[in-house]
Write a structure and sequence with these properties.
two-stranded antiparallel sheet; 13 helices
């Protein structure tokens, strides 16, 4: 019995040691990511200088360049511009234009998949975020770009069109971490979010003060489609990180009950996005299941670095668009009837379609197949990478003994 107890204590100590080292490493990596330019080259003489030179401004400059160690072809080091962004560049400059150029420091990016049927909700989203000096990208999955030209902000945002693609497909191909490295936070939101009770600046103030690497706004429980209780907005406090274990649907720790956000409205810090972008699979377009792995990109303890902001909340209407019909699914809450009425006309138009032509069924079927493929890939990668240690594997006995704190 004593031997088992000692072995258990030893195992716990090893797990704590691994978790601590992983968190320390990710904190150091986050600091490096904040300072290191994504596009840069480093000469052999520069690397030697880093090792032998003393402290000073020149050394700091060389160290700042040390993010990349490979020369790009035969290009001279100084010709590589170390930063990139998604800002639209004018073809000509005047003094007034230069003076009005927005400050690039602390800018954020919002990217939204946009179909013309959701024009009203996207318009409301853009007005909120563009007023706060956000850079905006619209992913047009229906290809109808010109139909947005009548909106006054249309020419100030980036439009990317590809028919019948998901936001994860767009994000993987157009939001490479090096390209969006100038932005402190990346908002990757769905189009069916209502933001009447949401302020981007106040939201970011909470995220920064609580050091949330990955977050989302809370959902209005009366009008929103709710999939998981952790996303429901709490009326007390500014944010929460977990659901009480007293909740029958969340009697355990871990996703989706703690350290987790859903894929409909995630907000990533720059460092978290550098990891999450790699998590998005090149060939699996629906992205089902990756939100359960966001914690591995949280730059440390996911139960501390991932949270839901309650004071700035949204309504998630749950409009299904890919595959043809824009139909709202059944919702929970007292206001579900009012929410369903918003799309009653659209539903009426789609009732006449034959069941065999319902593309939504095929879309969901493929989504489930991709979810299984992603889970198998994760399990295979974790099994074959013998140097990898899961930082979130903990003793079940320890979970049970830990008190639940919201």
């Amino acid at each position: 019995m004593r031997l088992r107890l000692r072995l258990l204590v030893l195992c716990l100590m090893i797990i704590l040691f691994v978790v601590y080292n992983m968190a320390s490493y990710q904190r150091r990596q986050t600091a490096l990511d904040e300072d290191a330019p994504p596009f840069d080259t480093m000469m052999e003489s520069d690397r030697a200088a880093v090792k032998v030179s003393g402290t000073g401004r020149a050394t700091a400059k060389v160290t700042h360049r040390a993010a990349s160690t490979a020369r790009v072809g035969f290009l001279p080091h100084g010709i590589v511009e170390p930063y990139s962004d998604m800002e639209l560049k004018p073809l000509w400059l005047t003094r007034s234009v230069q003076s009005e150029e927005p400050n690039q420091k602390d800018r954020c990016l919002i990217a939204i998949p946009a179909g013309i049927n959701q024009k009203k909700s996207v318009d409301a989203l853009m007005k909120k975020f563009l007023a706060e000096n956000f850079t905006a990208i619209l992913f047009h999955y229906d290809g109808k770009v010109n139909d947005w030209n009548d909106l006054p902000w249309s020419k100030s945002v980036i439009h990317i069109a590809a028919s019948n693609q998901t936001k994860w497909w767009f994000a993987k191909r157009f939001l490479h971490p090096a390209v969006v490295s100038m932005y402190k936070y990346i908002f990757l939101w769905d189009e069916d979010l209502e933001v009447d009770n949401f302020n981007p600046s106040r939201y970011l103030n909470i995220v920064k003060s609580e050091r949330l690497e990955i977050s989302q706004p809370g959902l209005d429980p009366k009008l929103s489609e709710i999939h998981h209780p952790i996303t429901v907005r709490k009326k007390t406090g500014n944010f929460h990180r977990r659901v009480s274990r007293a909740n029958k649907d969340c009697a355990r720790e871990g996703p989706p009950c703690s350290g987790w956000v859903e894929g409909m409205a995630p907000v990533f810090s720059k460092s978290a996005w550098q990891c999450a972008w790699h998590l998005i699979q090149n060939d699996l377009v629906h992205g089902w299941g990756i939100d359960y792995k966001f914690g591995y990109c949280a730059q440390g303890d996911r139960t501390k670095n991932i949270g839901v902001v309650d004071s700035e909340f949204v309504v998630h209407r749950g409009v299904q668009t890919l595959g043809g019909s824009a139909v709202t699914k059944r919702t929970r809450g007292k206001g579900s009837h009012a929410l369903r009425q918003k799309t009653a006309q659209v539903q009426q138009q789609t009732r006449g379609r034959a069941a065999g032509l319902d593309m939504r069924t095929k879309v969901r079927r493929k989504s489930r197949v991709e979810l299984r493929d992603f889970q198998k890939r994760w399990e295979r990668a974790a099994r074959e990478d013998r140097t990898w240690v899961d930082p979130f594997t903990r003793s079940r006995r320890k979970r049970r003994s830990r008190p639940a704190v919201d």
